[in-house]
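This section describes the prediction task in plain terms. A model, or a person checking by hand, is given the sequence of a single protein chain and must write out its three-dimensional structure as a string of tokens. No templates, partner chains or ligands are provided. The sample shown here is typical of the held-out split.
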Amino acid sequence: GFKDPGDVFTVMIQFGSILAIVWLYRARVVAVLRAQPGDPAARRFLLAVGLALVPIALVGALGRAFVSEVLYASAWTMAIAFIAGGVVMLALERMSLRPVVTRAEQTPLSRAFGIGLCQVMAVVPGVSRSGATIVGGMLMGLNRTAAAEFSFFLAIPTMMAAFMRDLFSLRGALLSVQTGEIAVGFVAAFIASLVVVAPFLRLVQRVGFGPFAWYRIAVGGALLVALSRGWDVR
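The expected answer:
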């Protein structure tokens, strides 16, 4: 029964997740930024992340109305996307890929742009942004760990840009939500992200994406059953 006028609460707690990722990678982020002026490798990595950001930025700027009014208007789209994403993950696990990049910082520009193109799929409801970029990274020749780490590095500017855009569009509605509610949600999102990211990376490195793939298929199937019975899942 929680009311969230204008989705202000939902938008604000995203910032908690962003800060959690920055905090987890603070040493490497600081090292890259400090080395950037005189280190060609650091400059190239920042350029790679920036290049990967371009496709989603263009889609967000040019197709936002279509995404919000068409794609997000159908719960069927989300259910199908959940199942399709799981199937793609299972197929990826069975492919004999030979990684050529073992560290996120070594991602070539062309491969980074390819990952950015895969991130565009995340505008479809039910498609995980991190899942799309990790799968894209592995298809682009990164090993599991490097793909996951590049995905999290890319999440920082992507989520920050989305947050700032939403915050600007909702600036007039901020006072309609109690500060205390936002604070609690922010802290909860920050802690949840801190707790999840590191174990996620270890699990991916050890067992792959199979468990997440079957989870997605199960959730998507449950949504399809609910929708076919006329249940309100919104």
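For orientation: The longest helix spans residues 179-207.
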